[in-house]
UniProtKB/TrEMBL annotation:
<dbReference type="InterPro" id="IPR014314">
    <property type="entry name" value="Succ_DH_cytb556"/>
</dbReference>
<keyword id="KW-0812">Transmembrane</keyword>
<keyword id="KW-0349">Heme</keyword>
<dbReference type="GO" id="GO:0046872">
    <property type="term" value="F:metal ion binding"/>
</dbReference>
<dbReference type="InterPro" id="IPR034804">
    <property type="entry name" value="SQR/QFR_C/D"/>
</dbReference>
<keyword id="KW-0472">Membrane</keyword>
<dbReference type="GO" id="GO:0016020">
    <property type="term" value="C:membrane"/>
</dbReference>
<comment type="similarity">
    <text>Belongs to the cytochrome b560 family.</text>
</comment>
<keyword id="KW-0408">Iron</keyword>
<feature type="binding site" description="axial binding residue">
    <location>
        <position position="38"/>
    </location>
    <ligand>
        <name>heme</name>
    </ligand>
</feature>
<protein>
    <recommendedName>
        <fullName>Succinate dehydrogenase cytochrome b556 subunit</fullName>
    </recommendedName>
</protein>
<dbReference type="GO" id="GO:0009055">
    <property type="term" value="F:electron transfer activity"/>
</dbReference>
<keyword id="KW-1133">Transmembrane helix</keyword>
<comment type="subunit">
    <text>Part of an enzyme complex containing four subunits: a flavoprotein, an iron-sulfur protein, plus two membrane-anchoring proteins, SdhC and SdhD. The complex can form homotrimers.</text>
</comment>
<keyword id="KW-0479">Metal-binding</keyword>
<dbReference type="Pfam" id="PF01127">
    <property type="entry name" value="Sdh_cyt"/>
</dbReference>
<feature type="transmembrane region" description="Helical">
    <location>
        <begin position="59"/>
        <end position="81"/>
    </location>
</feature>
Length: 82
């Protein structure tokens, strides 16, 4: 991609058109959504390693917080992409 963007103005325009297409934006959004969920869930597990939220109620609340945080981050990623 770096080579294509630097070789000529025509190749830069072609690369720009490709990267701004709807399928590529959807793919990028899906990857960012997965990364957001994975990161937030990983932080939850690190917190649980310290003994916080290991009960049933704590686990349910932690799962809800993870899903809500991932949804917010996914929406922010979508706003950033589009």
């Amino acid at each position: 991609m770096l080579d294509a963007s630097l070789s000529s103005p025509e190749s830069f325009a072609s690369l720009t058109n490709t990267l701004t297409s709807v399928p590529v934006k959807l793919l990028l959004w899906a990857v960012l959504a997965g990364a957001a969920y994975h990161s937030v869930a990983g932080i939850k597990h690190l917190i649980m390693d310290f003994g916080i939220g290991e009960s049933l109620e704590g686990g349910v609340m932690g799962a809800r917080i993870v899903i809500a945080s991932a949804v917010v981050l996914t929406l922010l990623a979508g706003a950033w992409i589009w």
